[in-house]
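Hey L., structure's done. Input below.
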Amino acid sequence: MEEEKTPGLETAHRAGFVNIVGNPNVGKSTLMNDLVGERISIITSKAQTTRHRIMGIVNTPEYQIVYSDTPGVLKPMYRLQESMLGFSEGALTDADILVYVTDVVEDPEKNKEYLDRVAAEKIPVLLVINKVDLLKDNAQLDELVQQWRKRLPAAEIFPISAKEHFNVDNLKARIVELLPENPPYFGKDALTDKPARFFVTEIIREKLLLNYDKEIPYSTEVLVEKFEEKENSIHIMSVIYVERDSQKGIIIGKGGEKIKKVGMEARADIEKFFGKKVFLEMFVKVEKDWRNRDKKLREFGYLE
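Output:
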């Protein structure tokens, strides 16, 4: 005979959207990857590495957290950056919980207008002070906490080091506590809302950021034209777009050495990501001034 369940004792399922926002280069992507437990957002030491809004989904039987990593807030210089800013501003309007990330060197008054909007939010705001491993002592941290408490008085403050995984578990536990009661928004086996080929482009873009200097990586875009998956292997054909002929030469390098290095590094990470052998073809094409052309930005997924 089955034991009867007492009505009302079952724990309701929780689900919510947790949007991670902040200025460029404060560690948003590192934090996102730590919270999700997977390598979803690309991470380099250069600013503006995240161009899209990327979702990472954490599932347990009791809850579903939909994290969203957004591009760093910046004053746009061209159409691409306007689109990136749009992703960041949209994150303020559709979150259940807002995670505002700063670090130990950033001025609390940087980007005042955006911060004022965060301060006016009615939803829970968790202020994350990242990179505390760089501080000399607790006195410096106490001073920073006081500064931010004045700036965002309604926010809960979490000093962390995403790189060292310090205090991240406490942040995640608080996020779970704040989740509203909802059924899951995505399937319980979902890791992200992005298709597989999106992560190929992100991995290749990361290698471009790591292997080239100055404006070159910011002038590039990657498009996967072929993604053919078999049981034990994936065949990928990708195109790296640049804005000028001179940039094409720099990307390829003398005797094709530079592009070969990028391809080898990207293939190794793609194989790790998918757990399969990868055949990667890469081509370089010139698409003049693509960052200011709506048609190309739409093609690359930055505009609706």
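The chain is about 35% helix and 20% strand. The radius of gyration is 21 Å.

-- N.
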